[in-house]
Amino acid sequence: GSYVMGFVLADTQGWLKGAGEAPFEVVPLQTFAKLRQAVNDKTADFFMWEHFTSKKYYDNKEIKRIGEIYTPWSSWKIVAQNPSDQRLEDMFYKIDRGVKYFEEHQEEAVEYISTHLDYSKEDAQEWLKTVKFAKEVKGVSTETINKTIEILKKAGVIESGAVQANDMVGAPK
Q1: Do residues 151 and 8 touch, judged by C-beta distance below 8 A?
Q2: Is this structure's pTM higher than 0.90?
């Protein structure tokens, strides 16, 4: 995700030269701790990470926030080898119920997030204001997949013509 988001940033800024040609050197550092260390010891110029996961480190001044960019797609997609597998219907139903419960029990959600996910209570509350869940998780639009394919081509993750959106969507919306 962070690698591809570098290409999203480059694309929005007009820095891309050609498909798969990074306008900057990409150095995989593996962990969030190593990324923070690298910007502080100047072995890396910048990194991209989710806002609330890194907020604690902005707040304690370990790292500096210099900007924000949003993903051109939702955070999660459900992928299956066989989209007609009947177990998926049960899974979709259970996820939809879980989302409904989560949305109806915001105080419980904040308590869980702030005690299990390394967020402060205030950050958990702010995060919840930014999160939007699908009312029904089954299905994806071809338009969303096409946008994702275009970015992945620019990042050199997939080759042009290697895949078509319709081949990837087992449950269209």
Answers
A1: yes
A2: no
- Do residues 137 and 92 make contact, with C-beta atoms less than 8 angstroms apart? yes
Distance CA 17, CA 88 (A): 41
Q: Examine the pLDDT at 155 and tell me if it is beyond 90.
A: no
Query: Residue 64: helix, strand or coil by DSSP?
Result: coil
**Separation CA 39–CA 147 (nearest Å):** 31
What is the number of H-type helices and E-type strands within the chain? 8, 0
pLDDT at residue 1, as a whole number: 67
Residues 18-77 have pLDDT tens digits of 777 778 888 889 899 999 999 999 999 998 888 888 898 999 999 999 998 888 777 777
pLDDT at 70: 83
Contact between 165 and 158 under an 8 Å Cβ cutoff? The reply is: no
| Spatial separation of the C-alpha atoms in residues 156 and 64, rounded to whole Å | 29
- The length of the chain is 173
Q: How far is CA 5 from CA 23, 77, 107, 163, in A?
A: 13, 16, 32, 20
Amino acid at 95: I
Q: Is 37 left (phi over 0), alpha (psi -120 to 50) or beta?
A: alpha
Helix (H, G, I), strand (E, B) or coil at 75: coil
